[in-house]
Specification:
Blueprint lengths: L1 H29 L8 H24 L9 H20 L1
Length: about 90
Amino acid sequence: MHSLIVLIDMVLNLYMWVLIASAILSWLVAFNVINTRNRVVYAIGDFLYRITEPVLRPIRRILPNLGGIDLSPVVLILLLIFIRNLLWEYLA
């Protein structure tokens, strides 16, 4: 049982890093630091979008519109940290 908890914890931790990478990449594209016409940047951005968007979309529907500020990754990261803590508290 302990190895399953560790595996779930590692997957949640990895997904948090993917969320952070996706947010940073979106900022870099928005401020024209990197260009999505580059095939590598486009491929990485598309991969990150496909991985994170299905989870972020329901959160964006619930959150109020704050203009250009997207707080859904922050809310999801806090939710994942809460789930990780519950996992270790009740199952370990």
